[in-house]
Amino acid sequence: MNERDLFKKYDVPAPRYTSYPTVPYWTDHPSTEQWIQELKKSFAETQMTWSMYLHIPFCESLCTFCGCNTSITKDHNRELPYKNIILKEFQTYLQKVPEMREKRLKQIHFGGGTPTFLSAEVLKALVSQIFSEIKKDQNHFEGSIEVDPRRTNREQLKVLAELGFNRVSMGVQDFDPEVQRLVNRIQPQEQTAGITKIARELGYTSVNYDLIYGLPKQTNASIKQTAELTVEMRPDRIALYSFALVPWIKPAQKLFKDEELPAGDAKRELYEISRDILMKAGYLEIGMDHFALADDPLAIADKDKRLHRNFMGYTEERTEVLLGLGVSAISETPGCFHQNEKALPVYERRVEASEIPTFRGHLLSTEDRVRREQILKLMTLWEVELESDAQAKDVREFLSQLEKDRLIEFHGRKLKLTEIGKPFLRNACMALDQRLRGQAPLTKVFSQSV
């Protein structure tokens, strides 16, 4: 079977597996009290390090491709109240989990929305207050922020650099003017190049570009130009994401016409064109959709088989706790997932009342933990050792077509993706997803796997 036919055959709805169980299959929802107990138990572990994620939902305009939880506004008077509400949420956690003060914070990451919607002064006040309450890891600390080059300035990056931030991730998506018009994100290359230059002048050691393939009106020629312009600016990392078409979740995507959207093998060809240009320029392919220069810590972690994957994608460090602050933010411990309220007014009201704003979560069963580790290994190492002959038999039967098409191999109880099978990683992971296999979704939930 040729490559085109393979992409048509296996282009099915599939999770991205930034967690297991995936969010639609979260059950056994923990109460706030149970979540706090899980946190306290994790923070009681000796030599533990942890990470923090802060969600800033505000954007001045809506990018119609976006699947994130956002609040569209030009009212910058909302900055200070939101900063204060995040700090109040953090203080509530410190009161309930005082052990947090004694463990070393290894990573802090701002996501959105547009974190640089916040001014330099507000960013400085927010981060400074958090750092005054906890201990940073002195051996290896990572501070990173997602930025929109259209809404970012030197002063914002400068105050963060002075606070120890060393990584910046820029939303680029595509450099083609027509594609930018269709996704409502006009961003000339000069803006991206300018912020890249500023970040490097300020000492940021890692610059990442987010690109997306499968956007409306993207062509082989336009994606080639985007990849070539990217290579010219030489970011340390590149995330080349598949456009997740989920109009049942994000109504703005209904504006896209079917005939404008690359799909199946035509969509995958956009990735392969980009991949070829990046690889020839010295980038290494990391996991499912990331690239990095050979001396970047992500590439080194991949080489050393230390790569990790969580809600923020691939990272080179694994921590026992990821604490999410802000509306809709997701947290995790070894035994529990937790998500904050998704509606901003509800989140704010509950935090003001000194509550942990629990929206939903999941207490992991023993089987969940086993499956999570297996899927994590497959997502980061391209192979996994199955736990028993019975599981190996079950998985092999489920993936019989992938094996027949030489996309996977079995070596005893070891499942391994072949080189030509790597684009079908999400399909292979579904064999390990016992919850998905036990109850297929009755409505559209996941984006296509290709």
Provide the structure class. Answer: alpha/beta
CATH topology of the largest domain: pyruvate-formate lyase- activating enzyme
SS field, number of helical segments = 16
User: Mean pLDDT, rounded to whole units?
Assistant: 93
Shape estimate: globular
- CATH architectural name of the largest domain: Alpha-Beta Horseshoe
Distance between the termini: 17 Å
Counted up, domains total 2
How much helix, percentage-wise, in residues?
Answer: 25-40%
Topology:
Elements: H1 3-10, H2 32-43, E1 49-56, E2 58-59, E3 71-72, H3 79-96, E4 104-112, H4 120-133, E5 135-136, E6 142-147, H5 154-162, E7 167-173, H6 177-182, H7 189-201, E8 206-213, H8 220-233, E9 237-242, H9 264-280, E10 283-286, E11 290-293, H10 297-303, E12 308-310, E13 313-315, E14 321-325, E15 330-333, E16 336-340, H11 344-352, E17 358-363, H12 366-381, E18 383-385, H13 389-398, H14 400-404, E19 408-411, E20 414-417, H15 425-429, H16 434-438
Parallel strand pairs: 1-4, 1-14, 2-3, 4-5, 4-6, 6-7, 7-8, 8-9
Antiparallel strand pairs: 9-11, 10-11, 12-13, 15-16, 16-17, 18-20, 19-20
Helix pairs in contact: 1-9, 3-4, 4-5, 8-9
Keywords for this entry:
alpha/beta; 450 residues; 21% strand; pyruvate-formate lyase- activating enzyme; 2 domains
What does this structure look like?
By secondary structure, the protein is an alpha/beta fold. 37% of the residues lie in helices and 21% in strands. The chain has helices spanning 3-10, 32-43, 79-96, 120-133, 154-162, 177-182, 189-201, 220-233, 264-280, 297-303, 344-352, 366-381, 389-398, 400-404, 425-429, 434-438; strands spanning 49-56, 58-59, 71-72, 104-112, 135-136, 142-147, 167-173, 206-213, 237-242, 283-286, 290-293, 308-310, 313-315, 321-325, 330-333, 336-340, 358-363, 383-385, 408-411, 414-417. Strands 1, 4, 5, 6, 7, 8, 9, 10, 11 and 14 form a ten-stranded mixed β-sheet that branches. Strands 15-16-17 form a three-stranded antiparallel β-sheet, with helices on one face. It has a three-stranded antiparallel β-sheet with strand order 18-20-19. Strand 8 (206-213), helix 8 and strand 9 (237-242) form a beta-alpha-beta unit. Helix 1 crosses helix 9 and helix 3 (79-96) runs parallel beside helix 4 (120-133).
